[in-house]
Amino acid sequence: MARITASVYTSHVPAIGAAMDHGKDHEPYWQKLFDGYEFSRQWLKDNTPDVIFLVYNDHANAFSLSMIPTFAIGTAPHYPIADEGWGPRPVPAVEGDSVFASHIAQSVIQDDFDLTIVNEMAVDHGLTVPLSLMCGKTDAWPCRVIPFAVNVVQYPVPSGRRCYELGKAIRRAVERYDEPLNVQIWGTGGMSHQLQGPRAGLINREWDNAFLDRLIADPAGQADMPHIEYVREAGSEGIELVMWLIARGAMADANGGPAPHVAHRFYHVPASNTAVGHLILENPS
């Protein structure tokens, strides 16, 4: 059967992608941030999966405010790079896995989670920046990717508990697949940041690191945190962190197994006006 071997968590700040695309990643402002991903890039080379199930949010590129699915799974064979207003990022198109994605959709829907099935869509920085951070500049991504878009843009957004339980359903779906695939699940977005209003530029280091602590040691407790605490403590866009709970819910210990190994942890501010968090958890083999 297929199995989830690890989960990766990272911010997906658009300015990070722009820094890489314009050769600014070695400038003093950006160097410390990219240094925090050196371990991760080698780790991914040493632990390349067959498929990455990548949880992210679309930023009004594949979906608009006229239609916003709460959970949407990409079932296409290929995903072009979205033009977010200044041309598509100069990164490879994403190769999908239609058969495996369709299996996951079938299994998760039968487990009573309603998903929107998307057979054609472009992917934006929410998905490409995490890939760039983990892979560096490349002519091709190292494996197939299943995009999984979550609405954290237009309220109401899904609860942390709903996301955590969805992660468990995704794990069950993966384990029901009858090919021996090595699968990683990535949760992206966050950490604390607010892009508008009187609190624009908000960053809460203490809260962010407490979130990382609890995500590792007490994910079920973290899943019960109400939306209002994310918004109050981490800013209006800090709610993106509920997507990390989908990845965390897919790990072994959330499903009665042993605790994960923390392979890497990194935190840095600022990146543009955002706090950057990053974590790699490995399931025991």
Detailed description of the structure:
With 285 residues, the protein is an alpha/beta fold. It has one domain: Protocatechuate 4,5-dioxygenase, Chain B (3-Layer(aba) Sandwich), CATH 3.40.830.10. It contains 10 helices and 10 strands. The chain has helices at residues 14-21, 28-35, 38-46, 98-110, 125-135, 160-175, 205-217, 219-223, 227-234, 242-249; strands spanning 3-10, 51-56, 71-74, 78-79, 94-95, 116-118, 144-150, 182-188, 261-271, 274-282. The strands form 2 sheets. An 8-stranded mixed β-sheet has the order 6-3-7-2-8-1-10-9, sandwiched between helices. A two-stranded antiparallel ribbon has the order 4-5. Helix 1 packs across helix 5 (125-135) and helix 6 packs parallel to helix 10 (242-249).
Task: Give the termini separation.
Answer: 14 Å
Structural classification: alpha/beta
Give me the strand/helix succession: EHHHEEEEHEHEHEHHHHEE
CATH topology: Protocatechuate 4,5-dioxygenase, Chain B
Features:
Protocatechuate 4,5-dioxygenase, Chain B; 285 residues; alpha/beta; 21% strand; 10 helices; two-stranded antiparallel ribbon
Describe, in short, the structure shown:
The chain has 10 helices and 10 strands.
Topology:
Layout: E1 3-10, H1 14-21, H2 28-35, H3 38-46, E2 51-56, E3 71-74, E4 78-79, E5 94-95, H4 98-110, E6 116-118, H5 125-135, E7 144-150, H6 160-175, E8 182-188, H7 205-217, H8 219-223, H9 227-234, H10 242-249, E9 261-271, E10 274-282
Helix pairs in contact: 1-5, 4-6, 6-10
